[in-house]
Write a structure and sequence with these properties.
alpha+beta; 8 strands; 173 residues; two-stranded parallel sheet; four-stranded antiparallel sheet; elongated
Length: 173
């Protein structure tokens, strides 16, 4: 898990976790940390080959629109897709690649509610059979990093529907 976190923070290289840890919570945590797929041992070699091919195919076909997107300015928060950086009250916020992708997804459409399935599909580039708790964990981590003192409240839970970015866009500068 630590290695996945380090790799994902620095790179978008595909990650397939192949591990003896096969409990549901282990899989959820592995995927929430940014793994593209997760296979517990023992495994069928043909399934492993198919999953590797699938991860590579998804990465090749995934669009990379972030670099062309303009910076998103909010009261107290700046999200810059070109540099994949975030500033809160002028100070940098360290996010993993997956956390940044989630923030960018939500911040592009403030007020729009995204279901857990919408979020999983956007972050993974396809429909995933995954316990939706992974999204909840990811949102929780992102909230703590963006709002450690509880002042901004950038991400709201919409009960029974999903999540939305709750800070209105600042159209100045």
């Amino acid at each position: 898990f630590a290695l996945c976190r380090i790799i994902r923070a620095e790179s978008r290289v595909p990650i397939l976790m192949l591990t003896a840890r096969g409990e549901v919570m282990d899989r959820v945590v592995g995927l929430a940390l940014g793994a593209d797929d997760y296979m517990p041992k023992p495994f069928e070699p043909r399934e492993l080959v198919a999953r590797v091919q699938n991860v590579l195919r998804r990465r090749e076909s995934a669009p990379e629109p972030l670099a062309a997107d303009p910076a998103l300015r909010f009261d107290g928060l700046l999200v810059n897709p070109a540099t994949r950086s975030v500033q809160r009250q002028g100070a940098g916020v360290e996010l993993t690649s997956t956390e940044f992708d989630l923030l960018h997804l939500l911040a592009r459409s403030p007020g729009k509610v995204f279901s857990r399935d919408d979020i999983l599909a956007a972050l993974r580039g396809h429909e995933v059979e995954l316990h939706t708790r992974a999204v909840d964990i990811l949102v929780s981590r992102l909230r703590k990093k963006l709002d450690p003192d509880g002042e901004l409240k950038p991400i709201e839970t919409v009960r029974g529907r999903g999540y939305r970015f709750a800070i209105p866009r600042n159209h100045e500068g």
